[in-house]
Amino acid sequence: MVNSMTGFAARSQQGSDFTWSWELRGVNGKGLDLRLRLPDWISGLEQGLRTELGRSLVRGNVSLTLRVQRSRTQGAMKLDGAQLSQVLAALSEITREAERAGVELKAPTTAEILAMKGIADDPTQVSDGEMAALRGKLMADFRPLLDEFLDMRATEGAALHAVMLAHLDKVAKLVSEARPVAEERKAEMAESLKENLTRVLENAKGLDQDRVAQEVALLALKSDVTEEIDRLEAHVAASRELLASEDAVGRKLDFLCQEFNREANTLCSKAQAVELTRIGLDLKAAIDQMREQVQNIE
Fold this sequence. Notes:
The protein contains 8 helices and 6 strands. The chain is an alpha+beta fold and 298 residues long. The longest helix is centred in the middle third of the chain and has 76 residues, at 128-203. The chain starts with 6 loop residues before the first strand and ends with a helix. The model has no long low-confidence stretch (mean pLDDT 85).
């Protein structure tokens, strides 16, 4: 069964020290493009997550977002008195200079002063031991998120699988319709060329009859679409085998769709018959629909 490149999963956890939430999204892409938005203060986490994603995914544009907050504050905020005095003195000097220059300044709020570097020790800072424990919990919690994401891709893939088989059935039906039409056309073309050759030989003097016969035979060969029909049937069989595979087959199916389209174009260009042209155009439409679906297969 094939997998879709489209998927989504979200997960949240709340502990005694930290709370976090995940979002994992995937859309179609030519290769595997991983975009991770993670808290930069959790060292070593990104590499571990990239490794896990790389083991499970082959193609797709995948974005992972993680938000982490501390769920409780340990201890009280500690002020650095000396640093605070220096900052307040500097602010006072700035205010006086602004007044002399006739510039009106807005007084900073308490929160803005506390946010200045060195004013207060942040009780929510994470120690190395706490970070290691948090990283382990996050990696363990990521697996269920990834499994949910993969399940959604598999569900979408099952739907794509059914749609692809329906498109292949339509292509196979059109190809089977083309073969008897092509055989009938071949006989008609041979008779028409034979009549034309007879008229040419009757009204031409000094022509090499063998050379004329060779040219006519070459024209008949070039107008034959049997090989195109044979290759279309082979492409249908190859596509069915790929859809039954356990591997990621999106790229191969995309290539086969290009080959399908090439043969259908050639069939239309050689058709020289209304019914065969109609079948060729219907084939092109069915192949385009199939290729649209292939773009979402991993």
